[in-house]
């Protein structure tokens, strides 16, 4: 692996940028591995990385139906925050946020993590009470979050319209200063490069078509479009397709796959200093380093695997953005797209063992999985390596729906991604 | 945006409808006899199929009645909509192939 440094970049620049080598090995699948990870997005690649790095396992393959990180890793709006309400969720997301803070150094790969803060805008008395409750709950858990008046919110984000005469006036906002954005592709590439360097095989265009089982029902490997791959353990990290893959092993999940749309404007000069989200009127915006305004829309209401949705969903979001940020009314939208999100009834993820021995699942991240990429990968690797969950992800089982111990984050997660 | 045929009102735009999730999930006749596992299956576990789904819609900004639909989730193409109470219709292979196209 070529190590990146200011010196190596300068040397290659002076050399006309010749001599860069591929960042990960392109390989044919071997007939057998110790562990197969299904899904080559950020979560799956990260899981392989932590299995190799922290648990000393090397005989691992990541298999991906399409191309590397072409699913929700490439389609999300890259928001990272940890201001969730309940102890279980805030410790999971905070675990992830802490890993983000050192990820570029850890991977020797610039994931462009930018802690520009996340402002959650309140428009009603109910919003104010709920967000203040979030602020207090977070601070008791040692997670930064603070309450701003409308004037303080405008000082932090000058484009914000705090006129009392708009349809849903801004009454205040909560601010997590450590929240931010990162470069989505770089996260996947950085994990892929570091994992490949430790011996992990990354196999693209390889779709799982069946799960092999032994006489006791235990996992023995996977059938794929590129042949049979035997494995003692299989970890599924397939986002919107988790139900499809787990269905091959007869496991039903509490998931619904819905399209989630996003869109970007034409690129403009730096004009927007932070992330703003409004759960009540569903505005959701930040500016990418390229200059585009990145806007997250809502989920379409029906089950679909099409990676597209109805135009009325982003239109609704744009109405809210035009009201909160009048200066964007003349901005033209450049592209829109959809990804398939796997939503649980309590809007919290599942990172757990399944009823099938040797089969593990990391799913249900719904509309907010990007922020959890290193944290979920780290704890999923732990769960697979040790065949038992880490204390942080122990509550995030499939069985919580049977036992009635849901982690109801609908207020924090259903709209805000 | 989807064009949805309400069995009572005819074809209308998607914005008139509310989706009601998977159809033909019968509430157990005797809830007290259910195990926690069975009750969780009824309440929370879903097929979430990639392919043909039977689902409920409600014509919320129209006649406000529930009805069922068969739709291919790979293409969002509707095969048919039908009234509540009717069993899930059998679909022939040619129609299925058309919906997947």
Polypeptide structure, described:
- The complex is a heterodimer of chains A (417) and B (101).
- Chain A has helices spanning 6-14, 42-55, 72-75, 87-107, 125-140, 150-156, 184-197, 242-247, 312-324, 373-386, 400-403, 410-413, and strands spanning 32-38, 60-63, 79-80, 118-122, 146-148, 172-176, 180-181, 201-203, 208-213, 219-224, 227-236, 256-265, 275-278, 283-287, 293-299, 333-343, 350-353, 359-363.
- By secondary structure, chain A is of the alpha/beta class.
- Chain A has a domain at 115-179 and 256-343: 2-Layer Sandwich (D-Amino Acid Oxidase, Chain A, domain 2).
- In chain A, the strands form 3 sheets. In chain A, strands 1, 2, 8, 9, 10, 11, 17 and 18 form an 8-stranded mixed β-sheet that branches. An 8-stranded mixed β-sheet of chain A has the order 5-6-4-13-14-15-12-16. Chain A has a two-stranded antiparallel sheet with strand order 3-7.
- In chain A, a hairpin with a 5-residue loop joins strand 9 and strand 10.
- The longest helix of chain A has 21 residues, at 87-107.
- Chain A starts with 5 loop residues before the first helix and ends with a helix.
- The model of chain A has no long low-confidence stretch (mean pLDDT 96).
- By secondary structure, chain B is of the alpha+beta class.
- Chain B has one domain: Folate-binding fold (2-Layer Sandwich), CATH 3.30.2270.10.
- Chain B has 2 helices and 6 strands; from the N terminus they run βββαβββα.
- Chain B has helices at 36-43, 93-100, and strands at 3-6, 10-13, 18-22, 52-58, 66-72, 77-83.
- In chain B, the strands form 2 sheets. Chain B has a 4-stranded antiparallel β-sheet. A two-stranded antiparallel ribbon of chain B has the order 1-2.
- Chain B is globular.
- The mean pLDDT of chain B is 96.
- The interface between A and B is medium-sized, with 24 and 28 residues.
């Amino acid at each position: 692996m070529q190590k990146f440094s200011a010196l190596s970049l300068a040397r290659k620049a002076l050399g006309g940028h010749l001599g860069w080598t591929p960042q990960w090995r392109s390989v044919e699948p071997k007939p057998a591995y110790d562990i197969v990870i299904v899904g080559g997005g950020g979560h799956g690649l990260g899981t392989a990385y932590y299995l190799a790095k922290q648990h000393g396992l090397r005989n691992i393959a990541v298999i991906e139906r399409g191309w590397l990180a072409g699913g929700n890793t490439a389609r999300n709006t890259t928001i990272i925050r940890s201001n969730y309400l309940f102890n279980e969720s805030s410790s999971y997301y905070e675990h992830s946020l802490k890993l983000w803070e050192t990820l570029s150094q850890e991977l020797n790969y610039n994931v462009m993590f930018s802690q520009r803060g996340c402002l959650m805008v309140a428009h009603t008395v109910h919003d104010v009470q709920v967000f203040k409750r979030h602020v207090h709950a977070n601070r008791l858990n040692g997670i930064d979050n603070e309450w701003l008046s409308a004037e303080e919110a405008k000082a932090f984000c000058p484009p914000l319209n705090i006129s009392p005469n708009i349809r849903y006036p801004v009454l205040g906002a909560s601010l997590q200063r450590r929240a931010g954005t990162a470069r989505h592709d770089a996260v996947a590439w950085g994990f892929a490069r570091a994992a490949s360097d430790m011996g992990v095989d990354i196999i693209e265009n390889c779709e799982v078509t069946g799960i092999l089982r032994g006489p006791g029902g235990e996992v023995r490997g996977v059938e794929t479009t590129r042949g049979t791959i035997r494995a003692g353990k299989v970890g599924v990290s397939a986002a919107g397709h988790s139900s499809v893959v787990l269905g091959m092993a007869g496991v039903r999940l509490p998931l619904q796959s819905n399209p989630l749309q996003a869109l970007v404007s034409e690129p403009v000069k730096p004009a927007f200093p932070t992330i703003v989200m409004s759960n009540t009127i569903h505005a959701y915006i930040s500016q990418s380093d390229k200059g585009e305004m990145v806007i997250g829309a809502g989920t379409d209401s029906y089950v679909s695997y099409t990676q597209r949705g109805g135009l009325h969903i982003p239109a609704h979001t744009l109405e809210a953005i035009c009201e909160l940020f009048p200066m964007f009314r003349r901005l033209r939208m450049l592209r829109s797209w959809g990804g398939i999100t796997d939503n649980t009834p309590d809007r919290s993820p599942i990172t757990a063992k399944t009823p099938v021995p040797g089969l593990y699942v990391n799913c249900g991240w719904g509309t907010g999985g990007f922020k959890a990429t290193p944290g979920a990968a780290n704890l999923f690797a732990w769960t697979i390596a040790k065949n038992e969950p880490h204390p942080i992800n122990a509550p995030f089982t499939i069985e919580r729906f049977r036992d009635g111990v849901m982690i109801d984050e609908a207020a924090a997660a259903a709209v805000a991604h | 945006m989807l064009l949805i045929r309400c069995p009572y009102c005819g074809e209308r735009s998607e914005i008139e409808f509310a989706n009601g999730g998977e159809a033909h999930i019968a509430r157990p006749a005797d809830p007290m006899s259910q195990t926690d596992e069975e009750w969780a299956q009824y309440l929370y576990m879903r097929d979430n199929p990639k392919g043909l789904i039977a689902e409920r819609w409600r014509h919320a900004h129209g006649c406000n009645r529930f009805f069922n639909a068969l739709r291919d989730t790979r293409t969002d193409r509707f095969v048919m909509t039908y009234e509540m109470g009717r069993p899930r219709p059998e679909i022939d292979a040619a129609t299925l192939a058309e919906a997947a196209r």
